Amino acid sequence: MTQQANRLESGGILVRERPVEFEYDGIRYEGFEGDTLASALMANGIRTVGRSFKYHRARGIYTAGSHEPNALVELRTGARREPNTLATMAELHAGLIAASQNCWPTVRHDLMSVNSALSAFLVAGFYYKTFKWPRRFWTNIYEPVIRRAAGLGHASGKADPDRYEKSYAHCDVLVVGAGPAGIAAADSAARAGARVILCDEHARIGGALLNDRTEINGQAGVEWALDAPSRLSRLGVKVMPRTTVAGWYDDNTFAAAERVSDHLAEPPKHLPRQKLWRIAARHVVVASGAIERPLLFSGNDRPGVMLASSARAYVNHYAVRPGSRAVVCGNNDDLYTTAADLRRAGIAIAAIVDSRSAQEPSDVALAGSLVSQAVGGRSVRKVAVTDLEGGARRTIKCDLVCVAGGWMPNVSLLSQRGVKPAWNEGLQSLVPPETEAETYTCAGACAGRFGTQECLAEGARAGRRAAAAAGIDVPPGEAAPFAASGPFQGKPGGQSRVRGEAGKTFVDLQNDVTARDIELAAREGYGAVEHLKRYTTMGMATDQGRLSNVNGLAVLADVRGVPVSEVGTTTYRPPYTPVTLGTLAGHFQGRTWRPRRLSGFHDWAAERGAEFVENGLWMRWNCFAQPGESLAQAAAREVKAVRSGAGMCDVSTLGKIEIQGPDAVELIDHVYAGNLRKLTVGRSRFALMLREDGMVFDDGTVTRLARDHFLVTTTTGNAGRAMEHLEYCHQVLWPKLDLHMVSVTDAWSGLSIAGPRSRDVLETVVDRLDLSNEAFPFLSAADTSVCAGVPARLMRISYSGELAYEIYVPYQFAEDFIRTLEERGKEFGLCPYGLEALGIMRIEKGHVAGSELNGRTTPADVGLEWAASGTKSAGYIGRALSAREGLVDPEREVLVGLKAVKPTQEIAAGSHLLNKRGSRTLADTQGYVSAACFSPTLEQNIALAFLKRGRERHGEVLRAANPLQKREILVEVTSPVFYDPESDRVRR
Amino acid sequence: MRLTCPICGTRPLEEFTYRGDASVRRPPDFNPKNTGAWVDYVYMRDNPKGPHKEHWFHGGGCSSWLTVERDTVSHEVRSVKLARSARSGGR
Ligand SMILES: [Zn+2]
User: Is B87 in contact with A880 (Cβ distance < 8 A)?
Assistant: First the structure.
C-alpha cells in the first residue's frame, strides 16, 4: 500500500485515527474517514482521474463539489457497480472500489487519445454534419465506433441488489443548501416558530465554511459549522445532509434524493441505499451558494488546473496538497487568500497572476497579466503568462494552476421554476432578480450576496421572512447579529481571457466543448443560446452547465459582438444532479411494483394448484393443470367438464356497484343503452354502457333487487372507471337525482356455477329457494342464503352458454363456501375452471370481451344492437352520436365467426382478412381477427373477427394473413355464435 | 401538485384523476337534427391560456367530482368546489 504522500501533517476535518483502505484501478491505497474519493486520490498523488469525453485527454480533479466535470468514476463492482459517480462527492469508506472510466486500456495510457489527432473532425455539429450517409454506415461503423470512443461509464447490467425507499415530509420552511446563509436561515426560521427542513448535498453541512478559514462570533467558522447540526436539532430543525434537492415542482413540492447508505460498502439490512423524499414546503429558502468561474486559456483542462476555491477546500477541509508548486491566476482578491492558504500548507507559490493592472507587483505577484497557456500531458508542467498590455510572455514552471474567475450564483433550482436570472455587470455573472416572492426567498451567494458576514445576516433575515410567509406569527425583533470575518473578495475586475492562443481552450470540460466550437457554431448560424447548446452540447453535462455556462455565454457574446446581457441563458431542468433510476423507482419494483388483489377464493385455488394470471391488479385463475397437462389441454378438459357436467369459476373480480334511492332507476336509464326502466324486481339483464361518442364503454349486468335498489356489475378491467363514470353522471350531469351508490366489489365474493348440472350443485347449498326452471328462470335474481344462513345473492346469468348462475357470498364466508361447494358438488362432477377455458367458451358462444369492446366498436358492430334499441325520447349516454353517418355505414366492419378451412390450422389473433383473390396490401384489408382459439367442443380452430359487411358474407372463404408470423390460411365466414345458436341450453 | 378537496382537505395529486373542461354543457335533449351541439359537447374544446375550469375526481378519497379552477400557465389552483354544488340544474 502506498503512503499518503500529499497528506498534510495536521488540519482538515478528518478522523485520522480511522484510516480507510480502498482500491482504485486495481491498486490499494489508504485515506482517512472524512475523505472523499477525490481527496484520498489526491493524498496518494493520483493526478489523472479520467479521460475526456471526445478527445480522451487526460483530466484531473477540477472541483470539490457536485459540478465536477472530470473525476467521474465507476464505483463498486458486480451488481452494485455505479457508473458516472463523482469522486468529489463519493465519501471514502472501507473497502471502496473505484475504477476510472472512458479510457482503454488504462487511464494512464489511453489508446483512444488518437481522437486528439483527429480532433479537427470532432468540432461542433460534427455529429450532424458527418454521420448522415451512407445509411448503412450507421449501424456498422458510426454507431459502434462512436459508442466505444465517446461515452462515459457502463451500467452493471445486473439487477440492483439494494433497496430504495420513498418518503414524504411537510414543513413550513425548506432551506436548500447549508452554507452560512442556509444555516442562519434555518436557525432564524426555527426560532420564529417554523417547522424547518435543511437539506445539503454534502456529507457535512457548512458549505464554504468547511473549506475556508473564517471566524464567526469569535469561533472558527468551521467549528461553528460543525456545531450547527446539534444546535439546529435542538431548535427542532430536521437537518438532512447527503440530500440533494433535485427538483422543484408545483405547489412548492420538492424532490430530494437522500444518499442514506452510499457512504457504506453495503447498506445494512434495515436501511435503503437511497431514499427519494417528496417535501411539501410552504416556503423555501434557496441558499444554494455560488460556483467559482473557471478561466479560459489554452490547455486549461490539464490535470493540475483547478478552481482556486477547490484548492483551498483540499488544503483546509481535507488536509491534502493538490500540488507542490502553484500558479494562482484570476481577476479578484481571492487570489491572495488562496495563495496564503496554499503557503500554509507548504505549497510553493510560483506566481500570483492578477489580471488587474492596479495591483502592486511583488516578487511573485504579476499584475495586468493572465495565464494564456498550460502545458503538460498527464499533469501540467508549466504555464505561459502573457502581459495583457505589452503581450510579453514568460514561462513559469508549476504543477498546480488555481483559477479564480469570480463567482457565479447557483441559480439552477430557481431556473427550474422559471425564475430568470439577469446579467450583473459588476459581478460579471447571472444573478436572480430581487423579488418578494410568496413561495421562495433567495439568500446568500445564490442571491449574489457574498462574504461570510453578509451571508449570515441575509440568511437570518431570509429565515424570518420565510417563516412569516409560511403563515407563522413571527415575534417582532431582529435575528441575533453575527460578527464574522471573511469579507467578499471575489468581485472580478479586468480581463479574464487572453484571446488568440493556439491549442484547445475548454469551456465545457465534461463534454469537450472548446471556445472554438462556440465560435464555429455562431458562424454557422447557431448563435442563439438555445441553438448553441444543442449544436455544441455545451451545458449538457451532469452539472447542466453550472461550471461552463457563464464562460460559454461570454465567448458567444464576444463572437456576436454584443454584451453578454443580450445573449440570454438556457433553462436548467430537474434533476439538479443525476438521480439513479433505482431511487426514482423506490420500492415499486418486482413483487412490490404494484399491489396485488386476491379474491376470497385465492388460498383455496392455490391449494388446488391453480395457475394464476394477472388481470389488472387481480390474480385470477388461468387453469387448474393436472400433472403433465399443458395449458391448452387443461383448458380443453375444463371446457368439456362444464359443457357436460358442472364447473365453477371465480367472478369476484367483476366490478359490483349498488345504486339505491327513489331515482336509482333514472340513473340506470341514463347510463345504460336500451330501455332498462321496465326491468322488474327479481330480474337481471345484460346491458351496455356507451360513451357519449356512441362506442361501447363496458358490458355487464343490471339486477333490480328492489324497486329502489339496483346491483350492476362491470368487467374486471373497467370496474374503477365505471364507478368514476357513474359518479360523474350522478354528481355532474344529473345532480338532482335522489340516490346513493357504493362499490361492493370487495364485499362480495362470487362464483359462476355453469353447466347442465349446475342447478343440482346449487340445490345442495341454497337454503330455501326453489331453483326449478319455472320458479327461477333464466335472468332471475334473488337475495337468498346458503349453507344454513350465510347471506347470498343469486343470479341466473350465463357467459359460457350453459345453464349457469352467479352466486355471491360475503367475503369472509368465501373460503368456507367454496370448500363446502367443492365437497357437495363432487357427485355432479363439479370442476373448477379458469380464464383460459372461459375464453374458449365465450368465443364458442360468440360473446364479446375486451378484444371486441376495444373502444372503436358500436353495439351494432358487435351484434348487440338489440341492447341499444331505444324507442324512448330521453336519450341515454351515447345515443345522440350513435346516429352519425359513419357509425351506421353499412360498410362498417361487424362481428363474424371464422372457421379454419383446414380444422387443425391455427388462426392467429390480429390477422388481417383478405379476399381470397387479390393483393395483400393494407388498402385491401377486409377486417381483422379479434380472438381465436381451438374449440374442444367443435374440435376445430375458430375465431371471432370484424369484417366489412360481415352479416352478408357468411359462407364466404377468405384469407387470414399474419405477415408478422409469415402465415396465411383460409377461413370460412360464419355466424359468430358457434355453439347453441338458439340458446336453448341457457334456458333449460 | 396538491388539491384541497372540500371534504378531505389538501391531498396529493395521485389521489385525483383529471377529466377535462368543466365549462362544457351536455345538450339537454336528443334531437337527430341537432348533432352539431353534441359534436361540440363531445369533441370541441378551447385551449385557454390562463384560468381554466376543469373536472377532477377524488377517486383516492371521497369519490367526489370536483370543479377546479386552475391557471394553465402558472398551475395555480384558485378554487376547488364540489361539482354538484358548483353547478345547479342539469337534470
Ligand atoms: Zn375528497
Answer: no
For residue A252, the distance in angstroms to the closest alpha carbon of chain B comes to 8
d(CA B44, CA A887): 19
CA atoms A865, A870, A874, A880: torsion sign? positive
Nearest to A692 among B42, B55, B75 (CB): B42
Say yes or no to pLDDT of A552 above 70. Answer: yes
Per-residue pLDDT band at A920 (split at 50, 70, 90): confident
Distance CA A600, CA A653 (A): 10
Q: What is the rounded distance in angstroms from the CA atom of residue B56 to the CA atom of residue B63? A: 10
Q: Do A728 and B17 count as a contact with CB atoms less than 8 A apart? A: no
Q: Backbone phi, then psi, for A935, in 5-degree steps?
A: -90, 115
Closest CA in chain A for residue B75 = A250
Average pLDDT over residues A453-482: 92
CB contact under 8 A, A736 and B90: yes
Inspect the interface and report whether the beta carbons of A735 and B39 lie closer than 8 Å: no
Confidence of residue B89 (pLDDT cuts 50, 70, 90): very low
User: What confidence tens digit (pLDDT) does each residue in A826-881 have?
Assistant: 999 999 999 999 999 999 999 999 999 999 999 999 999 888 876 655 579 999 89
Measured CA to CA, the distance from residue A692 to residue A877 in angstroms comes to 5
Task: Name every chain B residue with its beta carbon within 8 A of the beta carbon of A693.
Answer: 42-43
HEC profile of A759-772: HHHHHCCECCCCCC
Cα of A439 from ligand 1 centre, angstroms: 25
Task: Answer yes or no: are the C-beta atoms of A726 and A720 closer than 8 Å.
Answer: no
Domain B2-88 falls under CATH 3.40.630.30 = no
Compute the distance between CA of residue A896 and CA of residue A204 in angstroms, rounded to an integer. Answer: 71
C-alpha cell read off for A353:
497572476
Cell of A761: 350443485
Is a pLDDT exceeding 60 seen at residue A152? yes
What is the C-alpha to C-alpha distance for residues A611 and A604, in angstroms, rounded to an integer? 12
CA distance A854 to A851: 6
**Cα(A237)–Cα(A877) distance, integer angstroms:** 56
Per residue in A273-298, pLDDT tens? Answer: 999 999 999 999 999 999 999 999 99
Contact criterion met (CB < 8 Å) for B57 and A727 = yes
Q: Is the pTM of this model over 0.80?
A: yes
Distance CA A832, CA A88 (A): 62
Q: Which residues contact A107 (CB under 8 A, 6 or more apart)?
A: A25, A48, A49, A50, A51, A58, A100
Output the CA angle A612-A614-A619, nearest 5 degrees.
55
Which one, of A759, A754, A760, lies nearest residue A834 by Cα?
A754
Among A249, A733, A880, whose Cβ lies nearest the Cβ of B30?
Answer: A880
Q: Is the pLDDT of residue A734 over 80?
A: yes
Contact B91 A724 (CB under 8 A): no
- Residue B8 Cα to ligand 1 midpoint, Å, equals 4
Residues of A near B (CB-CB distance < 8 A)? 249-251, 253, 278, 280, 692-693, 720, 723-724, 727-728, 731-737, 873-875, 879-881, 883-884
**Smallest Cα distance from B62 to chain A, Å:** 11
Nearest to B91 among A737, A875, A883 (CB): A737
For ligand 1, a single-atom ion, the residues with CB < 5 A are: B 5, 7-8, 58, 61-62, 64
Residue A124, pLDDT > 80, answer: no
Please list, in sequence order, all residues whose beta carbon lies within 8 angstroms of the beta carbon of residue A922, skipping any fewer than 6 positions away.
A912
Q: What is the pLDDT of residues A567-592, one digit of tens each?
A: 988 889 999 999 999 999 999 988 88
Tell me which amino acid residue A894 is: V
The residues with which A656 forms a beta bridge, in sequence order, are A713
Q: Collect all residues of chain A within an 8 Å Cβ-Cβ radius of residue B2.
A: 251, 253, 280
